[in-house]
Amino acid sequence: MAIPLRLAGASQGRAREEWEAFLRRRDRLVAQMEIAVCDGCDGCGTRCTDGFTVSPEEYRAVQDYLRTLPPEEVARVLGQEKTAPWPGAEGAAATVTYCRYRDRERGNCFVYPARPTVCRLFGHTPWLPCPIDAVERVPEGSPGLWNEYRRFERKTWAEWEEERTDDRAAAVGGGA
User: Quick count: other Cβ atoms within 10 Å of Cβ 175?
Assistant: First the structure.
């Protein structure tokens, strides 16, 4: 069962129009970013942690992208241990859980072409600055874009998967 796109106070059709307009604005903003300084860098990777939220469209885009990849590669990345000592605090027994799509063996994002908005903006906004200060200029529109993004329903990867599981169970059981 498809997870519907939801925007408070908007019909499904209106929510879709708003999302598509948002994506156009996001793509224009991303086109203004100083991406060349990121080539070959993985400084943001240490901050790719579990628990951030994505829209249903972003969730679907990642699922669609995963279906284009070799199943053994998907299993390899999803099977990696994602909990590790907190960088710099190994002696304190503090841990961090990385994003499920963080390829810890190769040090990169496994779903980079389909990555969600928060990942696309990371390092290029005032509130999520580049962790190694390589990005000198951030596009002016990033705070406004983030505020637009916040209007859409978002959940963690795990919450979307739980909702899909609940939807499947209801469909099979014919219940709520």
Answer: 7
